[in-house]
Amino acid sequence: MTHLYVLLLGAFLLGPTATAVQAEEQEWYSGEGIAPIVHITVEKARQFAWDQALVDALSQASLEVTGATMMKIEEGGEEGDDQFSQFVRTATRGRIVAVDTLFDEAEQRTVAGGARRELVYRVSMRAQVQPEMGRPDPGFQLELDLNKALFADGENLSLELTASRDCYVTLFNLYANDSLLVLLPNELLRDNQLQAGQTLSIPPRNEGWELPVGLLPGRETDREVLLAVATKSEIPFPAARVARQGLMSMDEALLTVNRWLAAIPSDQRTEAVAFYRIVK
User: Fold this and answer.
1) For residue 16, what are the CA distances in angstroms to 52, 65, 157, 167, 273?
2) Which tens digit of pLDDT belongs to each residue from 168-214?
3) pLDDT band at 73, cuts 50/70/90?
4) Distance CA 280, CA 275 (A)
5) In a 10 Å sphere around its CB, with 0-12 CB exposed, 13-18 middle and 19+ buried, how is residue 79 labelled?
6) Residue 161 domain-assigned (yes or no)
7) C-alpha to C-alpha distance for 162 and 230, rounded to whole angstroms
8) Boundaries of domain holding 66
9) Which of 6, 182, 213, 266 could be stapled to 134 by a disulfide with Cβ–Cβ 3.0 to 4.6 Å?
């Protein structure tokens, strides 16, 4: 699965401003990434450097990087496209649960045997990696279907969730403004239980509420993502960490989501991801 998340058959990667946390049972691994600032913005080079540093840390932890998708939203290139920054999937299914930033700046570096200098962005960090518990249950599947993949600004989004087994579903929306909203459960729909083979519609039909999508100010197009997590038993997402109206900053959100997932054995959960684009 390319061009993503978030948000998920492997390791979530935390955003560049994530801070270290105490988790004594996991080891720290070093990672470094360097991206030349050539024909790209400084911010884009920074994200590339972060991606490399995170992959490097996973490699130091002896986790084989087997694929890449996209996750956290960032501004695109000259065409103005939105893209999702990279997160990696690992064969041994480990998760980065904490990041300690050591260096995060642009700098001049000597290249070509000292013949010239170029501007690069360098990221140096330490990461805590927590291996997944158990193996996934191949019979536990979740489908996430959108009413469409391309929306005009202001159009209403709707989706359907179907699971192969009885479960409880938590639904996240990762927005283009680097924030995350817990869509399910919510104040209007607290019951997130889903029976095997049944379909849950969000928003529920004839319930009188909608999910309009919208562009960021000054943007021609944005790309966003929905992440659904199904668990065999009811395992509430830590609501105490969710800000007013369920909205969280991206870095806080990804760290919180990753820790929540890491505490759930692999055979007790499954995930589904869907992307959509918004245009004028």
Assistant:
1) 12, 20, 30, 33, 22
2) 999 998 887 767 788 999 888 889 999 999 999 999 988 788 999 99
3) very low
4) 17
5) exposed
6) yes
7) 10
8) 28-131
9) 266
